[in-house]
Design brief:
145 residues, mainly beta, Jelly Rolls, 6-stranded antiparallel sheet, 3-stranded antiparallel sheet, 2 helices, 40% strand
Length: 145
């Protein structure tokens, strides 16, 4: 069955949900993340209530977890436990694509839509609104830890 999937643009980064909590008995959420060369990426952060696993699909994306960089290319994977401070960058010469899996499925498209609305509003993001959205979903910016 072919399904039209929503592409959520957050600045230059795109997130496409493949499975949501409603699809998996709330066990996992699966999404594809595309990061163009030189894209501005989110600040380092941690999640309080779910773990995240990254699987490389295209290009090489660098995830830094608790200060240690990990280059994730096609076929590579990385487990990020809840509470670990992490962020990512595309330092390469081609766009990157990775699969993300959150377990349990405590994050979904609504989080990324709310973040996108703030980031894409024009001008510098409203940090008060951003912190409220992050807090609502159990995401902590590293600067507040």
């Amino acid at each position: 069955m072919t399904q039209t999937r929503e592409v959520i643009r957050i600045g230059q980064v795109t997130v496409t949900f493949l499975l949501e909590s409603k699809d998996t008995n709330e066990q996992l959420a699966m999404y594809e993340v595309t990061v163009p060369v030189g894209a501005k990426v989110p600040i380092a952060h941690s999640q309080e209530r779910y773990d995240e696993t990254i699987y490389g699909l295209q290009g090489v994306i660098t995830f830094t977890v608790n200060g240690t960089p990990h280059n994730i290319g096609p076929g590579d994977s990385l487990f990020i436990p809840r509470g670990a401070i992490h962020g990512f960058n595309n330092f390469g010469q081609q766009d990157t694509k990775a699969l993300g899996v959150a377990t349990p499925a405590l994050i979904g498209p609504e989080f990324f839509r709310e973040v996108a609305a703030i980031v894409n509003a024009g001008g510098p993001p409203d940090m008060k609104k951003m912190k409220a959205v992050l807090s609502k979903y159990g995401v902590k910016p590293a600067m507040s830890q």
